[in-house]
Every structure is written in C-alpha cells, then in structure tokens.
Amino acid sequence: MRVAVVGVGNVGATFAYALLLSGFASEIVLIDANRAKAEGEAMDLNHTVPFTHPTRIWAGDYADCAGATVTVLAAGANSKPGENRLALVERNAAIWREIVPKVVKPNPDGILLIATNPVDVLTYAAWKLSGLPACRVIGSGTILDTSRFRYLLSQHFGVDARSMHAYIIGEHGDSEVPVWSLANIAGMRLPEFCKAQGLGYEPKEMEKIFEQTRDAAYRIIERKGATYYAVAAGLMRITQAILRNQSSVLSISSLIEDYYGLSDVCFSLPTVVDRGGVERLLRLELSVEEVEQLRHSAEVLKTTIRKLSLN
Ligand SMILES: NC(=O)c1ccc[n+]([C@@H]2O[C@H](COP(=O)([O-])OP(=O)(O)OC[C@H]3O[C@@H](n4cnc5c(N)ncnc54)[C@H](O)[C@@H]3O)[C@@H](O)[C@H]2O)c1
Predict the structure, then answer these.
(1) Which of 298, 239, 306 is nearest to 268 (CA)?
(2) For residue 68, with 0-12 CB atoms within 10 Å meaning exposed, 13-18 middle and 19 or more buried, which class applies?
(3) How far is CA 184 from CA 120, 146, 189, 237, in A?
(4) How far apart are CA 121 and CA 119, in angstroms?
(5) 257 partner at 20 to 30 Å CA-CA among 27, 33, 210, 298?
(6) For residue 79, what pLDDT is reported?
C-alpha cells in the first residue's frame, strides 16, 4: 500500500498528513523539485507516527514511484489572489511534460491522481502524456466543489452535511454546473423538502449558495493565500476508495466519452471509483438547462486543451 506524492507544498503535504492520520497507506514517499522541502516534510510527518499508525515515510526520487498504487500529482504553481485557474495552464503543463513520464516509467501499473490546476486540463494532459488507460488517470475535479456545495446547503437547510446529496459537475472552475434538478435530502428534491418542512423554496437564495461555492477559492486565497485542507481531505477520500476497493460514488474528473454527445475532454461527473480507478461514470438525467451549462463548461475546457497541442 504505497502512495507517492509529487509536489509537497500546501496541498501535497496536507494530503500526506491526512493520509498518515487515516492509516490507509503503509508507505508514503514524498518527491519535490525542492528536495529540502520534501525532507523536512518527511521528518515532520515521521514524528507523527508514534501518535498515529506504523507508516514508512521518506523523501524519495521518481524511481520510488515503483509499486505505488496511487501517485498524487500536486506539483506546480498556485493561483494568486483574483487569478483564474485556467491562467495557470502554460506554467503547469510545462511541469507536466517533465514529471508525468518520470512517474509512469517506473510505475506503469499505478493510478495517477491529479490535484494541480487547472485540474481538468492537466488530467487530460496526464492521460495523453502517460499513455495509461483513461480509467487510471483521475483528477480531483469537483470533489472539492461538491463538498463546499453540500456544506453550504446543509447549513441553509439545517441538516448534517453528510445527509445533503447534491453534485457540482463539469469544470473545477468558473464554468462548473450545480445539478439542482437532482439535489435532495432523504430522497426529497429540495422544493419538496421545503414544502414538507413548511419552508419556502427560494431560488435566489439557492443561486447565492452556488455563487459562494463557485467562488470559495477566490475568497479563501484573498484571506490566507492558498486552499489545502478540504482538497487534501478530498484526495484522501479518493485514495481510500481506490486502496479499499470501495466502489464509492465521487465527483471526480476523468476522460469523457459520449456523454450527452460530449467526448475527448476531462471533467467531473459522479463516478464509481474502485481499485482499478474509474469503474464507470454515472449517466445523470439532467435538465435541459443543466445540459446546456455542461456543454459550455466542456467547450471552455476544450479550448484550453487545444492550446497545449498534445496530439
Ligand atoms: N484540485 C483542487 O481542488 C485544488 C485545490 C487547491 C489547490 N490546487 C492546486 O494545487 C497546486 C499546488 O498548490 P499548493 O498550494 O500546494 O502550491 P505550493 O506552491 O505550496 O506547492 C507546490 C510544490 O510543487 C513543487 N514543484 C514545483 N515544480 C515542480 C517540479 N517540476 N517537480 C516537482 N515538484 C515541483 C514546489 O517545489 C512546491 O513544493 C496548484 O496548482 C493549486 O492551484 C488544486
């Protein structure tokens, strides 16, 4: 149960910490262009072992990706305040051309889990550059946006966030799509839930909740410079579904083939994740408006992918 992490900045190091606390991995190897940073993180994490789980943690090289079930890629530039994720594409694609072949060479049988932004575009690029089957190239996608959405909705409706069922699909970014038509609590769609509780269903309030979801990263980066706890927990959840072969339904990014006529792009949909990576994508019955929004999101991503000339 080896997990490799490439890029141990805010996101990679927080993920490694979350993974160590979870006890799901027996080995965690940390790789970074800044070797001293990887060594420092490994030392600090090792001093956590007596409080947590027996785990071998070390600062390694790409050769140590050999045998890793999952390799998390979190290397690269982060958004500055007000900067859109897509603006990072050139800088991070250059890093991808360097690191993806180095990860895959010693580990052709592992799963790549991408966190670096723009995550959907870099998931597609990792698939192209690695030559791996698409089911083994996963982006964290909207697992984070879905979590933010569920949290905010749960606060509004006064229920546990884990009892709030709702998805954000499409791009992890400005064109993401809230699936209002299927959002539910205990199987009751939100207008029905409100009616049963004697509450009014207020579309304007719902829209505000979506805007807060979509723009959360901007608000956090303005305040603390980066976001990392929630994405690290999301990466941990995806890793857990893989290591434990859970067949969990998670909103992650992967290659799309013939979904409402959309193909050859990566974006997020509720996806069954197991030991093999993507087991299958779930074909949702979306409203006409949601399909239109999803088409727009796919087009935004395809336009950015085309700029990279990956073919
Ligand atoms: N997918 C999500 O939901 C999500 C959420 C938050 C952040 N992110 C993204 O994650 C990425 C990392 O963010 P961060 O805050 O951890 O950044 P960071 O600057 O703290 O860490 C980046 C790390 O990558 C390393 N690195 C840079 N180039 C490298 C290379 N060529 N090889 C190996 N290592 C290299 C750096 O040394 C650094 O340690 C960013 O692209 C950010 O936008 C994604």
Answers:
(1) 298
(2) buried
(3) 26, 13, 4, 22
(4) 6
(5) 210
(6) 86
39 contacts: CB under 8 Å, gap ≥ 6: 59
Cα 10 to ligand 1 centroid, rounded to whole Å: 7
Point out the residues of the chain with pLDDT beneath 50: none
Residue 81: CB atoms within 10 Å: 9
Q: Per-residue pLDDT tens for 247-297?
A: 999 999 999 999 999 999 999 999 999 999 999 999 999 999 999 999 999
Amino acid identity of residue 83, one-letter, is E
Cis peptide leading into 101, omega within 30 of 0?
A: no
pLDDT of 98: 96
The pocket around ligand 1, CB under 6 angstroms, is made up of 6-12, 32-34, 37, 74-79, 88, 92, 95, 98-99, 115-117, 119, 140, 144, 172, 226-228, 231
C-beta of residue 182 within 8 angstroms of C-beta of residue 144: no
Taking the model in full, what pTM does it have?
0.97
Confirm if 48 and 17 have CB atoms less than 8 A apart. yes
